[in-house]
Structure formats: structure tokens, C-alpha cells
Amino acid sequence: MNYTELNNGELRRLHPKAKQATALTALMVNGLLTLLAIGYLIVAWVRDWVLWPGWVGLGIFIISLIWYTWILPGLRHRHFSFRVAEDEVEIHSGWLWHTDTIVPMTRVQQVELESGPLLRKYGLAKVSIVTAAATLHIAGLEREEAEQLKRSIGHLAKVEDHDE
Q1: How far apart are CA 83 and CA 92, in angstroms?
Q2: Alpha-carbon distance 160 to 116, whole Å?
Q3: How far is CA 56 from CA 30, 53, 62, 131, in A?
């Protein structure tokens, strides 16, 4: 895959597996919180403590589990797109609060590639574009596509790649 294949002029989306990786992360975090609330309820019942904080926590964590595991990953995937042009990187995100960001290539100081355990499990990676003002992330690309995107942005922004 070369630059012309990456830059077809259309906004691109993340890989569909990104939804699964996001949902699995949320499931682990919110599942742990739900188990903690259940643990509190058990201890509170045995020791005759007040039960309502456990019930409130359990309700909140179950709602959070449903929202962050089944609803939000699809919304994030549907409402995130990006485009790389010769002179800029454009990122659109958000379904309730829309954010449209354009970063001129002359402002790009560094391009990073990350792949934590969950992203690696799905063969995905995250590209981070660092400027003096902010760091933008494109998380959920196939590993090969992410490496090519990193190289392309680095080349267009004239950023040295110390990995090669």
C-alpha cells in the first residue's frame, strides 16, 4: 500500500474490529466495577451495613456496562473518519459533539504507532499525530495500514523515522 492508495480523497473509517476492541475494554472495566458493587452488597448484607450504596453503585455500573459495551463502540465507529492529504490531516469525530480537526503537515512534529495488548489481539494499532498544541489519535486501524499511514504522514510532514 503506498501513499496514493491511502489518499483516495475520501474520508476513511476505522477497521470494524475496532468496535470489538473498544467493547472488550469497556466490558473488562465495567464488569470489574459491577463485581465490586456486588461484593459490597454481599459484605454489607453479612455485616448488616447499609445496602443502598451498593444498589446505587450496581445500577450505575450496569447502565455503564450496557452503554460503554454495546452502544458507544458502534457510535464511535460510525462517527469517526479521517483523511490524509499532501498538505493536511483531517479528522472528524463525535456523534453528539462534533469535532472536525485539520492539522497542516507543517505543524506535525512526530508520528507514533502504538499497539497495546487488546489492539494486538485484534491485529490493530493506533497512530498518534503530535503537534505543539495537541496529540491526535487514530485508533483502530489494521497494523499494516497503521504502519503505512505513519510512514506516509511522516514523509509528508518531513518527520524523521527513527525505526528504520
Answers
A1: 9
A2: 23
A3: 14, 5, 10, 42
pLDDT in tens, 48-98: 999 999 999 999 999 999 999 999 999 999 999 999 999 999 999 998 999
Q: What is the dihedral of CA 151, 156, 159, 161, to 10 degrees?
A: 20
> End-to-end distance of the chain based on CA atoms, in angstroms?
18
User: 103 forms bridges with which residues in the sheet?
Assistant: 89
Amino acid of residue 45? W
Q: Where are the alpha helices (DSSP H) in the chain?
A: 3-6, 17-47, 52-66, 72-78, 117-121, 143-156
Tell me how far apart the alpha carbons of residues 54 and 61 are, in angstroms, rounded to a whole number: 10
Phi–psi pair at 115, nearest 5 degrees: -155, 95
Name all contacts of 137-140 with Cβ < 8 Å and 24+ positions apart.
Answer: 138/14, 138/82, 138/91, 139/14, 139/18, 140/14, 140/15, 140/17, 140/18, 140/21, 140/22, 140/77
